Amino acid sequence: MTGRTPLPILPLAALTEATEAELLSVPETDPFGADERHSHFGPSGRWLLGAWLSTVVGRRSEEIAILTTSDETYVSTCVTIAAFNHGRVSRLVTGDTVAVVVIHEFGYVFADIAERCAEWRARGLAVLEDCAHLVGTTPEGERVGIYGDAALYSLPKVLPAPSGGLLRTRGAFTVPSMDAGLTACVAAGREAAERHLGRTWWLNERRLRRHALLAERCPTIELAAQAVPWATSVAVPSRAEAEETVTGVEWVATLRDDRVVVPTNPCVEEVEFTRVADRLASLTTPEVLSPRG
């Protein structure tokens, strides 16, 4: 891994020939199961989110509710930038809401997702499940992306893919026209999806093992009961100090100073997670052994 960050966020940044060979050797399983939906590829998840919002939000004055599993202050700019281009943003579903974007944050399933989506859709709201951090089923059997009107996937975040997004919709959807550069991004993402999407179960199992290594040694914050953690939150006395002391990690963004967020990159060897966990554990004091939620 010469010239690379030892623990990057995106799988492709850590992919080796040996890991690629092992990944391609495992059997394929449809991560979407019997969910009969239309699939649409785009150059990125953000681009597809904007394209979908343009079909359900008619005026800038209409409201888009963005909800996350943790309900923390931080929301990915991949979502907020797309939303602000089409309507005004709320962190609550109100009487003015026309569209709801539900983020299964860091691979943790949003609470009561089936019931909440059914309620919103019954009220005539358009609902999108943002599955950028989780494809498939949790160990407890919860499947994401099947309850809203649409489900959005960011291929580079969950697969060894250089680009691309995937939108799955209940009804018809027309992908907007693209220039040559965007079309090339779509082609690269689709190729990666054809090679790897059916093997996300294997990538998910590796993420779970890496999360377990961190949880065995550090005080972790579990955002929900059901998850395939795309990133693990670890309680620390000072985020700034931890990020400066523990080297070689591409930290996932957070606005909290009492935690760091470690990517559970499935293409990184487990020994690297042991190193990071041990370094983080050495920073832990009794005051953070019972982390705040």
Write the layout of secondary structure elements.
Blueprint: H1 17-25, E1 38-42, H2 45-56, E2 63-68, H3 77-84, E3 88-90, E4 97-103, H4 113-122, E5 126-130, E6 150-154, H5 155-158, E7 165-169, H6 180-196, H7 200-217, E8 220-221, E9 231-235, H8 239-245, E10 259-263, H9 270-283
Parallel strand pairs: 2-3, 2-4, 4-5, 5-6
Antiparallel strand pairs: 1-7, 6-7, 8-9, 9-10
Helix pairs in contact: 2-3, 7-9
Distance between the termini: 35 Å
Strand order of the largest sheet: 1-7-6-5-4-2-3
List SSEs in N-to-C order: HEHEHEEHEEHEHHEEHEH
Report the strand count: 10
Question: SS-based structural class?
Answer: alpha/beta
Q: How helix-rich are the residues, as a percent range?
A: 25-40%
Mean pLDDT: 94
Structure explained in plain terms:
The chain is of the alpha/beta class. The protein has 2 domains: 11-23 and 201-284, Alpha-Beta Complex (Aspartate Aminotransferase, domain 1), CATH 3.90.1150.10; 30-198, Aspartate Aminotransferase, domain 2, CATH 3.40.640. Helices cover 34% and strands 16% of the residues. It is built from 9 helices and 10 strands. It has helices spanning 17-25, 45-56, 77-84, 113-122, 155-158, 180-196, 200-217, 239-245, 270-283, and strands spanning 38-42, 63-68, 88-90, 97-103, 126-130, 150-154, 165-169, 220-221, 231-235, 259-263. It has a 7-stranded mixed sheet with strand order 1-7-6-5-4-2-3, sandwiched between helices. Helix 3 (77-84) links the parallel strand 2 (63-68) and strand 3. Helix 2 (45-56) packs parallel to helix 3 (77-84) and helix 7 (200-217) runs parallel beside helix 9. The radius of gyration is 19 Å and the shape is globular. Mean pLDDT is 94; it is low at 287-293.
